[in-house]
């Protein structure tokens, strides 16, 4: 019924021909149009760029009778072409938002059996997301049951991942049975452009019982995830929103590797986040590590000041350092400012001034 790689043709809805009424609507800007003027042509107008926008605006202030007229006419036909239409999907979303139980049930039943394909569709996924916000818990469970066998495909789909995120955000955790499928795939999800977003929603909204296996699995790969273009965001999320023990486990993986991670394009972001979220003692240990000369006498501070990524980590350290450690760090930075490029030296001077 649907082709996820092809946008529905206009002929799917209007046979490529506009009715005289729609032609007049597009041409006559002086006439005061009302929803009642569209009677018999609501579906056609819904699939037209200007007509769809008109219906959406009017539904915001329409009378109950006018809304019912629109609902009845759309639901009397096959709504699926509108669900996947570039303009029509917005009207269906309005129906879900403003309709009553009868209208929402009718839309849900029309989409039932097609939720997987709709979730992969550029426009259909928007209607599914809107439906998730308004359907009953039992209907949410039915929707989940349709997606569950292919949940990993949904997670990794450009459109489907938004549906999965919406489910995690809006559905009671005890109904999210598909989360079991994520166990054993945390590294795979964390390093995927869409999977990393879904995993973060899991850590944000699920129960401790559901997230603990995912977090324990994540901790096994922390060092590698820090250096991944997508995984670093998941690690940062744990640092910012995780439990103290999870934050401590991430910071422990940074200990002894701060310089190397600070010079890495992606891991440097984790280093900054760690400096911002660590408790005072952990932060002190991380900064001490940055100030301690290597066995060959090389100063990590000097290396970091000249590195395109690490210099930001050092600036972050300067902005969060506390107590006597501030002067110690500042004394290691100042001697090297003269050899820095003007704009970089200026950034350090700004932090040094602010820290006084």
UniProtKB/TrEMBL annotation:
Q: In its keyword annotation, does this UniProt entry include Repeat? A: yes
Q: Name one GO molecular function term.
A: mRNA 3'-UTR binding
Note the PANTHER family from the entry: MATERNAL PROTEIN PUMILIO, RNA BINDING PROTEIN PUMILIO-RELATED
Instruction: Please give the name of this protein.
Output: Pumilio homology domain family member 3
List keywords of the entry alphabetically.
Cytoplasm, Repeat, RNA-binding
The protein's matches in Pfam families, at most eight in alphabetical order, are given as: PUF
State the similarity comment: Belongs to the PUF3 family.
One BP annotation, GO: nuclear-transcribed mRNA catabolic process, deadenylation-dependent decay
Species, as recorded:
Dacryopinax primogenitus (strain DJM 731)
The GO cellular component terms are: cytoplasm
Q: In what residue span(s) does the PUM-HD domain sit?
A: 17-356
InterPro entries associated with the record: ARM-like, ARM-type_fold, PUM-HD, Pumilio_RNA-bd, Pumilio_RNA-bd_rpt
The subcellular location is: Cytoplasm
Show me the Pumilio repeat boundaries.
37-72, 73-109, 110-145, 181-216, 217-252, 253-288
Cited PROSITE patterns: PUM, PUM_HD
